[in-house]
Design goal:
heterodimer, A: 3 helices, rod-shaped, B: mainly alpha, 9 helices, about 0% strand
């Protein structure tokens, strides 16, 4: 029957679950920092500098999606 | 003029459509891990004693035998520092590309990073010196205050005017150091975005802060809160 298979999958799933549970919190923080927060803050700083220094004009700087929704509203 | 809330919202929208803006940070982390692993391997293979604690005393080693380990550690730290700065410049280059042309590839990262590495290194050194010096001066001044000795010795809640005055002075010095940190943050962006040398970038960044105090402070506070809420990853 499938006793061994079920048991093996159950053990692997349990091990995975606990590994993720234990190191997960730290890993998620690192991934969030790396993939979301660091690039986002970097983009904010760059945009702030460029907009205030007139390197990109407001129309240029507009988010294209916003332009579309504004056009739809008009 | 774009309002700060608008800027934050639009920045978020742009980031959402250009998720590969995280590539330089990813490369940075991967290189740090590789450096760390090779450091461990070299230490292990070459049997270099590494004295981080004073355990070496028990092995009967003197400082000359420990020197290679220290030098290797120093080299590893400098390489990791340079890699962080390299990809920091690269990330700014990519952000500029996506803001100017709304398309994105990694070539802008490599070209910006290579072009500015040396200057950004000098600027980072300069910023570190300025902050270190400011903190040193602050500490010396605080210690000269008459209430400091009382404050250090007293175990009770400070109540005399000298002690309260000193506490206030400590708080002021702390806030001034934070303000200095915020004022120096735009210097890196000035260096890369305006293609300046380290001294000109320092001046340009501080001028930028003086002209846009509230905006710089708001972004700096948000960025710091985000950074410290997710732990000590030094990105």
């Amino acid at each position: 029957m499938n006793k061994t298979d079920v048991l093996i999958i159950w053990i692997i799933a349990g091990a995975l679950y606990w590994t993720v549970e234990i190191i997960g919190a730290g890993l998620i923080a690192i991934l969030a920092q790396l993939l979301v927060l660091a690039p986002l803050t970097n983009l904010w700083w760059t945009r702030l500098y460029m907009v205030r220094k007139g390197m990109i004009i407001d129309e240029d700087a507009k988010d294209p999606h916003q332009l579309i929704s504004e056009a739809e509203m008009a | 003029m774009e309002e700060i809330g608008e800027l934050i919202g639009k920045g978020f929208g742009i980031w959402k459509r250009n998720l590969n803006l995280c590539i330089p940070f990813l490369y940075s982390l991967i290189s740090w891990i590789l450096i760390f692993i090779s450091f461990i391997i070299v230490i292990y293979v070459a049997h270099i004693p590494l004295a981080i604690t004073d355990a070496y005393k028990y092995w009967g080693l003197d400082w000359q035998e420990l020197l290679p380990g220290w030098i290797l550690l120093l080299v590893a730290i400098i390489i990791i520092w340079l890699i962080g700065l390299f990809f920091n410049a690269g990330a700014i280059g990519m952000a500029r590309q996506v803001l100017v042309s709304s398309r994105l590839d990694t070539s802008s990262m490599w070209s910006t990073a290579k072009r500015h590495l040396w200057n950004i290194f000098l600027l980072n050194l300069l910023n570190g010196l300025i902050i270190g010096l400011a903190m040193l001066v602050g500490l010396v001044l605080i210690n000269l205050l008459p209430g400091m000795e009382q404050l250090m010795e007293s175990t009770e809640i400070p109540d005399s005017p000298e002690m309260l005055g000193t506490l206030l002075a400590v708080a002021i010095v702390f806030v001034l150091c934070l303000l200095l940190l915020a004022a120096l943050t735009p210097t890196t962006y000035a260096l890369v975005l305006e293609d300046l040398g380290p001294i000109a970038a320092l001046r340009g960044g501080i001028d930028f802060f003086r002209e846009n105090k509230t905006d710089v402070l708001i972004i700096w506070i948000i960025a710091s809160m985000i950074r410290y809420s997710t732990g000590p990853l030094p990105l």
